[in-house]
């Protein structure tokens, strides 16, 4: 990193030991007068020649910016129309940023499906690393590149809470506001007793440690992560799991801290949070469950409807004759499709039982756009239908007017007599 003012040198905090000392010495020798020079994390392992070449490129970029700014300022002073404002520098796109940080001799192949991006990448590599140009391929098949390399499936798996391990175990990842909890399950790999079972548990925990480190990088999970490993009795096995986790997180660019397993088999991991996790970036909270992952049971919603009707009856103070269904109060109930099916299915429908027990008429209507568990209870008193309703018997359905939704009336008295005959 080249800063145009200052006279300091720095090295990324993630680089430690001998490598940090080596890079600090190189940056001191390479730093041009009047600039601050910092070695990034990706500078680790690079030679003097590579770092010097990167510095020359940065100095060339800075020289172009200053020359462009000076020419624009002179043009503005001379009154040239449209001289300012002017674009002095445009940063590299996402593709070139990835190439700069990740594309090196360890990468065997880089596949690009855009001709424009392909030419940008190869043009950039011609300047900084010509020997890597032959490793860049242009993808020209008709099959989408994500499908060809099965990347789409990996993206879908990011949204899954359950991650299957190769040895039969699984991970359950739950993200909350405060922390992320990861539960390790044994599954079919748990077998035997005594030593064989302890060995099977160790294998699952070791595989889980590798996969957890990978999931943290893929999902870009930051903050506090609590991992509940399968309980192990041997302390040496716990140490092996701890060492495997420390080794697995070394590939991570973010700062990761790992603690040893507690007596309860819990491991605390801290990872520097730079941005929201991928799960929150590519998804939205469910409008039905509001992000908790569970919806209200239909029985619970039915109980709420029953209590709401009782509440309305108590407020209105209406007293109806149980022997005269025509005097019963009428309500319009608007629910979603699933709740409507729940209320009207079976020989003894829930809606019929509710109406007969509370001595009310309930007219049911499916409301579009209602999420599961949502309902609306309204008093049914349409003045236009008053005369027609007086002529209707409890056995007769309400007529349907043009432009009005169809409403279902459940005649309780007649329904009960039919139900007895059916038995």
Automatic annotation (TrEMBL):
GO terms for molecular function: endonuclease activity; hydrolase activity; metal ion binding; RNA binding; RNA nuclease activity. Keywords: Endonuclease, Hydrolase, Magnesium, Metal-binding, Nuclease, RNA-binding. Residues 384-393 have a biased composition (Basic and acidic residues). One of its GO terms (cellular component) is cytoplasm. The keyword Nuclease applies. Gene3D superfamilies: Ribonuclease E, catalytic domain. Its cofactor is Mg(2+). GO terms for biological process: rRNA processing. Transmembrane segments: none annotated. Pfam families: RNase_E_G (PF10150). The keyword RNA-binding applies. InterPro entries: RNA-bd_AU-1/RNase_E/G, RNase_E/G. Residues 384-405 are annotated as: Disordered. Residues 3-274 form the RNA-binding protein AU-1/Ribonuclease E/G domain. It comes from the Eukaryota. Involved in intercistronic processing of primary transcripts from chloroplast operons. The endonucleolytic activity of the enzyme depends on the number of phosphates at the 5' end, is inhibited by structured RNA, and preferentially cleaves A/U-rich sequences. Belongs to the RNase E/G family. This is RNA-binding protein AU-1/Ribonuclease E/G domain-containing protein.
């Amino acid at each position: 990193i080249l800063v145009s003012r200052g006279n300091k040198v720095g090295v990324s905090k993630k680089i430690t030991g001998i490598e940090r000392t080596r890079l600090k010495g190189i940056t001191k020798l390479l730093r041009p007068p009047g600039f601050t020079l910092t070695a990034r994390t990706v500078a680790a392992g690079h030679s003097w020649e590579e770092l010097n070449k990167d510095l020359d490129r940065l100095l060339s970029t800075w020289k172009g910016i200053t020359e462009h700014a000076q020419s624009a300022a002179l043009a503005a002073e001379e009154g040239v129309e449209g001289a300012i404002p002017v674009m002095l520098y445009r940063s590299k796109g996402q593709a070139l940023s990835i190439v700069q940080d990740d594309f090196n001799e360890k990468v065997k192949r880089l596949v690009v499906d855009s001709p424009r991006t392909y030419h940008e990448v190869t043009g950039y590599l011609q300047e900084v690393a010509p020997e890597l140009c032959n490793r860049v391929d242009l993808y020209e098949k008709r099959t989408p590149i994500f499908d060809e390399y099965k990347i789409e499936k990996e993206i879908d798996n990011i949204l899954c809470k359950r991650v299957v391990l190769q040895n039969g175990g699984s991970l359950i990842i739950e993200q909350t506001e405060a922390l992320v909890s990861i539960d390790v399950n044994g599954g079919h790999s748990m077998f035997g007793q005594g030593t064989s079972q302890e060995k099977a548990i160790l294998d699952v925990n070791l595989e889980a440690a590798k996969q957890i480190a990978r999931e943290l990088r893929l999902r870009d999970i930051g903050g506090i992560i609590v991992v509940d490993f399968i309980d192990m009795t041997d302390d040496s096995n716990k140490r092996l799991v701890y060492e495997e986790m420390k080794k697995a997180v070394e590939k991570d660019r973010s700062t990761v801290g790992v603690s040893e397993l507690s007596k309860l088999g819990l491991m605390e991991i801290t990872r520097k949070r730079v941005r929201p996790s991928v799960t929150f970036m590519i998804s939205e909270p469910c409008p039905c469950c509001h992000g908790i992952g569970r919806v209200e049971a239909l029985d619970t919603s039915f109980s709420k409807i029953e209590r709401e009707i009782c509440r309305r009856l108590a407020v209105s103070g209406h007293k109806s004759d149980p022997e005269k269904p025509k005097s019963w109060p009428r309500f319009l109930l608007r629910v979603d499709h699933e709740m409507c099916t729940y209320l009207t299915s079976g020989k003894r429908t829930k809606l019929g039982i509710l109406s007969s027990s509370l001595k009310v008429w309930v007219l049911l209507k499916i409301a579009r756009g209602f999420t599961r568990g949502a309902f609306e209870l309204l008093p049914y008193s349409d003045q236009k239908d008053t005369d027609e309703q007086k002529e209707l018997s409890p056995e007769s359905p309400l007529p349907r007017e043009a432009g009005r939704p169809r409403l279902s009336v459940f005649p309780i008295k007649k329904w009960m007599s039919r139900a007895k005959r059916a038995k």
